[in-house]
């Protein structure tokens, strides 16, 4: 057995690649990315609104979004920069 056999299929062998499935996955990824791009401004606005609310604690925003405290801080800070 040669070293080439131990490595597996060579990159230029496409016998096992389902190109239709690859194309479907790529399209699904592009759609999901587009949806994320549309939702991001709404999410960030909601985070800023919650952050400005004296009753909402940052830990509650972190728990609700799954973002880190630092990421929340950056989102809020970015709005402050554009408001000036």
What does this structure look like?
The chain is mainly alpha-helical and 84 residues long. It is 74% helix and 0% strand. It is built from four helices and no strands. The chain has helices at 3-7, 19-52, 58-65, 69-83. The longest helix is centred in the middle third of the chain and has 34 residues, at 19-52. The model has no long low-confidence stretch (mean pLDDT 86).
Which secondary structure elements does this structure contain, and how are they paired or packed?
Elements: H1 3-7, H2 19-52, H3 58-65, H4 69-83
Helix pairs in contact: 2-4
List its salient traits.
single chain, 84 residues, mainly alpha, elongated
Total number of helices: 4
Low-pLDDT runs of 5+ residues are none
Helix content: over 70%
Q: What value does the Rg take, in angstroms?
A: 22 Å
Order of helices and strands: HHHH
Structure class:
mainly alpha
Q: Averaging pLDDT over every residue, what do you get?
A: 86
Overall shape: it is elongated
* Main beta sheet: none
Portion in beta strands: under 5%
Summarize the structure.
The chain has about 80 residues and is mainly alpha-helical.
């Amino acid at each position: 057995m040669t070293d080439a056999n131990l490595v597996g299929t060579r990159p230029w062998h496409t016998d096992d690649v389902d190109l239709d499935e690859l194309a479907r996955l790529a399209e699904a990824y592009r759609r999901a990315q587009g949806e994320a791009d549309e939702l991001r401004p709404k999410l960030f606005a909601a985070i800023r609104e919650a952050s400005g609310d004296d009753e909402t604690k940052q830990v509650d925003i972190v728990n609700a979004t799954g973002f880190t405290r630092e990421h929340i801080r950056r989102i809020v800070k970015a709005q402050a920069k554009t408001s000036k």
